[in-house]
Amino acid sequence: MIAAPRSRTCALAILVAAILANAGPGMAHHSFAMFDQTKQITLTGTVTVFEWTNPHAYIEIDVPDEKGTVKHWSVELGSPSILMQSGWKFKDLKHGDKVTVRISPLKDGRPGGLLVQATLPDGRVLGNGPGRGPAQPTTGAPNQ
Amino acid sequence: MMQRRHTLLGVIVLGAWSIALVPGVAHAQSKTDTPDFSGVWGPYRGGRGADPKLAPPPASALALNPEYAKPYEARRAAEAVANSRGEPLANASVACVPYGVPSMMSVAVYPIEIIQTPKQVTIIAEAFSEVRRVYMDKPQVKIDDVPPGYYGRSVGRWEGDTLVIDTVGIKESVQYQRMPHSDQIRISERMRLVAPDVLHDQITITDPVVLEKPYTYTLAYRRMTDYEMVEFVCDNNREYVDDQGIVRLRVREK
Is the ipTM of this complex over 0.95? Predict the structure, then answer.
């Protein structure tokens, strides 16, 4: 199911944008300008593959609409290292899992987006790296 | 006589063998009068209640020679416009190539690992698994004798508690924050513990061709005890540049 887009800019999106905006002397891997971080949409669907890869992890999901027509979406996450710092593990999703993701969609309208937060089958809600969304670090998180 | 000779030979062989068994011991320990930077270091962000003295000082102003300043500013302006449209312009990161020196010293929130021995300090960045080697107490060579690359040639020495590193041989496409530079670029670093678990790296870029005056910025790190570095191989890069020179994300049909 695709929930209605949130038109208002929420504080979280601003926070994410600020963190991803490459402030300070460090480098970011790439510009996140291709994502519309003033918008968020919520997708609920079935995971086809969870790619725990660099430079980014991806959740591929099939999302049915109200009529049951399935559309496929690619959701970009941080890298494994960054995800581990907010409690993710490489086995947290697998083919066939039901997942709900809130994303900032691609500005060019194609079915893809940047993860804001994911609700996993076991009910955990995870963000997209430290400071990116409602991180709930588990004991597996690296030392801070 | 024969027995004595055998015994002597045995002692020599045993001695050589035992030295061979522990070849790293003599070199693995730093001189006692120098600090030990070995370990994993993540970006230090300070935070509430943190000692302001541990925060890095602000960077100096960037002073490019006029002929380089104009295209640099034009490029920055074009990037800002493109980003606001959601159509970022292509740059080196699209190809997933490493950052090189000095950018690799601070990539997003990724840590670096320092392995310090008297003869060599090795710095490994988690992002892109980049490696740089700093040869200690060796003279630097002429810039023109170093094939331009991502890491160049680095030599280091201790000045009291400060590790001073000199790097030359960075190729022109390897840029910090997309600052232009010539083949005459030289990068000087001063690494020092400002607290037992907080390390500063003051980085100064000089370039007599492109820069009017040196550019200096400082990175701050916090020690990450027991952190195990995560592998990073860029084997799922979904960004590409379209025929308009715009960075796109490859999405999948199914």
Answer: no
